[in-house]
Amino acid sequence: MSTTTTTTTETQTQNGGEQKTRHSEVGHKSLLKSDDLYQYILETSVYPREPEPMKELREITAKHPWNLMTTSADEGQFLNLLLKLIGAKKTMEIGVYTGYSLLATALAIPEDGTILAMDINRENYELGLPVIEKAGVAHKIDFREGPALPVLDQLLEDPANHGSFDFIFVDADKDNYLNYHKRLIELVKVGGVIGYDNTLWNGSVVLSEDAPMRKYIRYYRDFVLELNKALAADPRIEISQLPVGDGITLCRRAK
Asked: Which of 10, 40, 76, 147 has the highest Cβ tally under 10 A?
């Protein structure tokens, strides 16, 4: 999920003026140092083109106490466009929360497209479900409550599932990302894409061990670092790590 961790307001000088960055603010999902620049992106390119159901769900999620877990609006737009570009039809999402990225996917894939969606908390998913239903895309979603690994293992038991998914998005427990990857690389088709979210982990990946970090950032940081190294060395995939949201790494299965 997208994260926001620094607790102080930073000030930097550019072109003789001051720009404030407020990374502790709820809803700030960007790694950009300038809030004004991020707001410009949102107000110029994202919010004016955001589908009404996604806007409604984003506003509902903003009121939830765990709203920092949601996918940012710019990342939702990116995923929606990416799915259209690759012509994805059969998809999977691990980690749903209230369903913002799930809705972005459902709106992007064809009417007969499918999403196997997994999350350990159905209550959060049901918070966004009325919006998804109103958008007319709930029939595309097969929601499974519970841990994802047993579901993936069950899928792998059937050879018909191997190489059958066009796109898979992972935004869940970082300590299991490598466990997911070992399984997902068999389930995504050659030419298909896996997207791993939070791979820059609020910028902590470049911090020293003794740098101040929130406890959950420090705990998962090593898992994210391990994942990034593993993906970079995996000969089965082509990758691109992008500073969108909290960092997303796209992996195209090459062989």
From this structure: 76
Task: Taking each helix axis as running N to C, give the angle between helix 52-62 and helix 122-134, from 0 to 180 degrees, rounded to the nearest 10.
Answer: 150
Angle between helices 122-134 and 100-108 (to 10 degrees): 40
Q: Is 201 left (phi over 0), alpha (psi -120 to 50) or beta?
A: left
Angle between helices 73-86 and 100-108 (to 10 degrees): 30
- Size of the chain in residues: 255
DSSP, collapsed to helix, strand or coil, labels residue 97 as coil
pLDDT in tens, 77-88: 999 999 999 999
AA identity, residue 80? N
Question: Could you tell me whether strands 90-94 and 165-170 are parallel, antiparallel, or unpaired per DSSP bridges?
Answer: parallel
pTM summary value:
0.88
What is the three-state SS of 137-187? CHHHEEEEECCHHHHHHHHHCCHHHCCCEEEEEECCCHHHHHHHHHHHHHH
Residue 65 has pLDDT above 90, yes or no: no
Of 85, 134, 143, nearest to 114 (Cα)? 143
Query: 240 — phi, psi (to 5°)?
Result: -145, 120
Please report the pLDDT score of residue 67 as a whole number.
85
3-state SS, residue 240? strand
Distance CA 140, CA 44 (A): 31
Pair 83, 167: CB distance under 8 Å: yes
